[in-house]
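One-letter codes give the sequence; each number marks local geometry. A record appears below:


***
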Amino acid sequence: MNFSTGKVIVDEQYYPCFEGDKAPQESFYKSFTHKLKHPIKMSDFKIGENQFPVPGSKRTFIF
């Protein structure tokens, strides 16, 4: 996520463990813009304590 522009890219890639196997999950890609209601100050930022839903999916973007 780019905090200044609000641009978010979610890119999840899954590959099979062994040749001939199927990937454990289907890969997922989504690009969208999400403006934060309040700017995050880096002095208060803690990884994993911020989240919002990814539009059009059941996923959550955690940062």
